[in-house]
User: What shape does this take?
Amino acid sequence: MDSTTPSSAQRETRLVQAFVELADTLVDDYDVVDILYQLTQRCVQLLGAAAAGLMLSDQRGSLTAVASSTEEARLLELFQLQTDEGPCLDCVRTGEPVLVSDLSTAAERWPNFVPQAVLQGFLSVHALPLRLRRETIGALNLFGRQPGPMPEQDLQVARALADTATIGILHERAVRRGEVLTEQLQTALNSRITIEQAKGVLAYAGHLDMDQAFQALRGYARSHRARLSEIAYQLVKGVLRPEEFLSPGRTSSSPPETVGVRHPEPPGRRPGVGHDRLGTSPPRRATSGSAPTPAP
Assistant: This one.
């Protein structure tokens, strides 16, 4: 799509790494949000896309943006949800790829999305469904800075990555017991809201942009071998302080004992996620829909 497509040797190495990472989804315990974030990053690295975004459907059929390679892509995914139009939505609704090599030709099809995408510097888009047989649970959006079709070989790689991620989410036990699938998808959607709040805390405290804030959050979680969603929850609740993420020596500290503990849902209440597509409603464990003001 763009001129940043890697060499054959780099591509082969990165492709192997991508499938090894996605293989983690075939075990019982894995971080859905982090895996999907890795998927968007690998798509950018492998396919030369300028950015990638991913949407998932919750148990009510409402779509939510759960992962993106850049803040620009995340905002554009949210814009599609707000306006109820765009390639990712069409891809999920039809269960078929939506391939647009030149967005200028799609202005009538998506009168709101196309101008916004072009304003962000994207001139092509390829959306691929996360689908297993007849069940579509989301879509992967690949944005390009230059017009032109994605090479067939790249499309095959993108489909393989999307299919592998889908198989991981729709694990055998999730297919046999619908409650497992529902809980897994709902956890991913709720976790994403908490992560967005945590990004806001770090961005405010460290004067960072949202991409830098996410990298700091993810780096802390990985250095402490903890789930991204759990670290985000601890930051939002004040158990962790922003200074621990922004300090140069943060990797030498130990996370609090409460990290890794599952926090039960308050009785009699199960919040919906799809109705608040901007991620401003409170997650299950938070008490406010906006990022809390960090402690001085």
Summary: Residues 8-170 form a domain with the Beta-Lactamase fold (CATH 3.30.450.40). The longest helix spans residues 178-206.
